[in-house]
């Protein structure tokens, strides 16, 4: 039986664990130093902009297409297994067009999506007002409505994936980190990781545990490259992902702030509450009288630290109110922030072999789209493992 160890239990590690748990004959262990969905995933808004994205070819579009299609089957599949709903919104995403936006570009995208059988609509201002009367901005010149795109609560989704993977026999260990790796040389500049040593972060717990591994999947978000620093073999000074550009890369934290607003009654038509997005600000209906609004995009400073700037969050709130003035009367129920793992020197996400290793996969660096791209990432990892097992 092949033993697969996954480091990291955000949305990416959980999606991979669930996907692999459906294959007979694998032993799967997931390790995380924290509880599931507490890092980047815990801060995400769960907006899944697939069909409405401007990606039209290659890996970026393929991953979005696979993911959006999979979400429509994955959600009911998981809900049936956990016997409770996973909060999500299937009323689509409405992107607001502002002066200067190229409507011809959108028309072209509509044609491309139509050829793929995917719905996308351009709404004029009259239709926008009719369908979403909460939009009162004079600035908006049109809307692009994508009924096939959706939004999901990322924490509830991750916990559902963990629960069902557990039902399927996956072992999860939280409060645990990797303390060391055993590797063997399997040819010229090629290594295999054959054992990992884990340690509990709870100081009262006993000695480190040794686990034999056949595959190591690193889905540790911002922790992905640091947690591999101790692995011996290969050209470790330049961690590379064979599947993409082939240059060394790093992963930097890009901070995002968001908040939850409470209103007395739903804005606009209570029966039609799509996610509204304009000028990179999302207004996400989560319950009848709650909206999430976000998120800022804040790069790290010269010493690599990303520190929340309250004025940027105020700008996001101001922009949301400029589109939906009804939000001005809302009360702020909660504010939060999180760090997105952004690869530098490598397109997001980094999914592929760690250079020099035959059995170490990276599934990381999903930056602003980890929730969106989780199903396609899990499917890519599954294919790499299955193909390799077949070739043995
Ligand atoms: C404000 C905000 C809004 C966002 N909105 C969206 C959105 O609308 N749609 C979307 O698709 N994406 C969104 N994102 C991006 C999304 O959150 C990330 O791309 C995604 O969560 C990355 O998932 P992950 O599993 O790779 O990383 P994480 O969720 O960060 O999980 C990594 C896990 O690895 C663990 N770990 C790290 N190092 C170690 C180690 N050494 N040993 C053991 N465990 C380790 C961590 O504890 C953590 O649990 C948003 C992000 C932010 C901050």
What is the CA-based Rg, rounded? Answer: 22 Å
Query: Which CATH class of the largest domain is shown?
Result: Alpha Beta
Helical proportion, percent range: 25-40%
The appropriate CATH architecture of the largest domain is 3-Layer(bba) Sandwich
Multimeric state: single chain
Strand order of the largest sheet: 6-7-5-15-16-17-14-18
Architecture overview:
This protein is of the alpha+beta class. It has two domains: 224 residues, FAD/NAD(P)-binding domain (3-Layer(bba) Sandwich), CATH 3.50.50.60; 144 residues, D-Amino Acid Oxidase, subunit A, domain 2 (D-Amino Acid Oxidase, Chain A, domain 2, 2-Layer Sandwich). Helix content is 29%, strand content 30%. It starts with a strand and ends with a helix. About 3% of the residues have low confidence.
């Amino acid at each position: 039986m092949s033993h697969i160890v996954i480091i990291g239990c955000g949305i990416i590690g959980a999606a991979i664990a669930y996907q692999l748990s459906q294959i007979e004959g694998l032993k799967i262990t997931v390790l995380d130093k924290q509880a599931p969905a507490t890092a980047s995933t815990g801060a995400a808004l769960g907006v899944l902009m697939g069909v409405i994205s401007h990606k039209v070819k290659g890996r970026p579009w393929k991953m979005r297409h696979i993911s959006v299609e999979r979400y429509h089957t994955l959600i009911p599949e998981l809900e049936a297994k956990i016997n409770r709903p996973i909060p999500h919104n299937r009323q689509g995403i409405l992107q607001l067009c502002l002066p200067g936006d190229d409507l011809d570009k959108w028309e072209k995208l509509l044609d491309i999506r139509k050829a793929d059988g995917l719905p996308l609509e351009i709404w004029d201002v009259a239709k926008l007002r009719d369908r979403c009367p909460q939009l009162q901005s004079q600035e908006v010149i049109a809307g692009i409505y994508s009924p096939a795109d959706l939004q999901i609560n990322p924490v509830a989704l991750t916990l559902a994936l963990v629960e069902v993977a557990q039902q399927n026999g996956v072992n999860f260990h939280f409060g645990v980190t990797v303390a060391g790796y055993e590797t063997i040389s399997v040819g010229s500049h090629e290594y295999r990781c054959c054992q990992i040593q884990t340690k509990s972060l709870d100081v009262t717990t006993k000695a480190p545990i040794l686990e034999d591994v056949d595959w190591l999947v690193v889905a540790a978000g911002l922790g992905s490259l640091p947690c591999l620093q101790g692995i011996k073999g290969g050209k470790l000074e330049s961690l590379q992902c064979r599947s993409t550009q082939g240059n060394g890369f790093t992963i930097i934290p890009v901070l995002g702030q968001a908040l939850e607003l409470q209103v007395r009654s739903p804005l606009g038509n209570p029966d039609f509450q799509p996610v509204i997005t304009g000028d990179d600000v999302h207004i996400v209906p989560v319950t009848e009288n709650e909206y999430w609004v976000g998120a800022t995009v804040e790069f790290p400073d010269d010493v690599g630290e990303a520190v929340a700037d309250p004025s940027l969050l105020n700008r996001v709130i101001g922009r949301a109110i400029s589109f939906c003035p009804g939000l001005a009367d809302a009360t702020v129920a909660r504010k939060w922030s999180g760090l997105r793992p952004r690869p530098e020197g490598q397109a997001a996400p980094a999914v592929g072999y760690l250079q020099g290793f035959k059995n170490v996969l990276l599934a990381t660096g999903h930056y602003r789209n980890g929730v969106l791209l989780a199903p396609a990432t899990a499917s890519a990892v599954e294919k790499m493992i299955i193909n390799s097992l077949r070739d043995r």
